[in-house]
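User: Predict the structure for this protein chain, please.
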Amino acid sequence: MHRAPALAVLLLPLAAAPAGAVTVSAGQAEAKEAARAGGCTPAKVEVLRHLLGREASTVFKVGCSEDKEAFVLVECRARICTLLR
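Assistant: Here is the predicted structure, written as structure tokens:
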């Protein structure tokens, strides 16, 4: 009986997180790989746009460590990412 409250406490942060946040964070690794393929060593990753629905997509702005003003844009759909710029 003592396990149920402990389990509920462990699962509470997962239930409180929005479903879109989990999808966005999962796509960051793929966005970094697409940036590397485009010749950019990834540094900071920001979400520019996140659309939910049947054709959900996320556009990331990935900063390049070679130049602090350089960045690439990567669009991810269903964990398949494409370099936009």
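Residues 21 and 50 are 9 Å apart (CA to CA).
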